[in-house]
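Field log, afternoon session.

UNIT: design team B
ACTIVITY: writing a sequence onto a fixed backbone
BACKBONE:
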C-alpha cells in the first residue's frame, strides 16, 4: 500500500491506490479545509506535492481552472480532493491560508 506523508507534522498513513489526498489527510487526523466537500469548486484543499508527483492522478480541467484562481500556487500545487494516490508513496505539505 502506498504511504502518504503529510508535512509539516510528518504524520504518515497507508492508503489504497485511488484514495484522494483529501481522504488520506482527514483519515490521518490532520486538519485540512474542504469547503466544497471535494467538488473542485472552492480551492480550499490546496496542497503542495513534495514527492511522488508523477505517480498521482493527472490534473483535470475542473481542478486546473480552480488552481488558476488561487494565489500562491506553484508547479507542485494540487487540490487534495482531486488528487488520487497511485502506486507509489507520496509526500505532501499542507498549505495554510
Ligand atoms: S474541497 Fe473544494 S476544491 Fe477541494
Amino acid at each position: 500500500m502506498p504511504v502518504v506523508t503529510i508535512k509539516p507534522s510528518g504524520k504518515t498513513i497507508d492508503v489504497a491506490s485511488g484514495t484522494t489526498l483529501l481522504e488520506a489527510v482527514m483519515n490521518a487526523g490532520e486538519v485540512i479545509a474542504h469547503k466544497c466537500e471535494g467538488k473542485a469548486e472552492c480551492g480550499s484543499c490546496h496542497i503542495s506535492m513534495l514527492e511522488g508527483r508523477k505517480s498521482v492522478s493527472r490534473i483535470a480541467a475542473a481542478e486546473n481552472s480552480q488552481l488558476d484562481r488561487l494565489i500562491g500556487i506553484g508547479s507542485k500545487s494540487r487540490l487534495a480532493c482531486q488528487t488520487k494516490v497511485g502506486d507509489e508513496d507520496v509526500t505532501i505539505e499542507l498549505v495554510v491560508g
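LOG NOTE: The pocket of FE2/S2 (inorganic) cluster is lined by residues 34-36, 38-45, 66, 79, 81 (CB under 6 Å).
NEXT ACTIVITY: expression trials, pending approval
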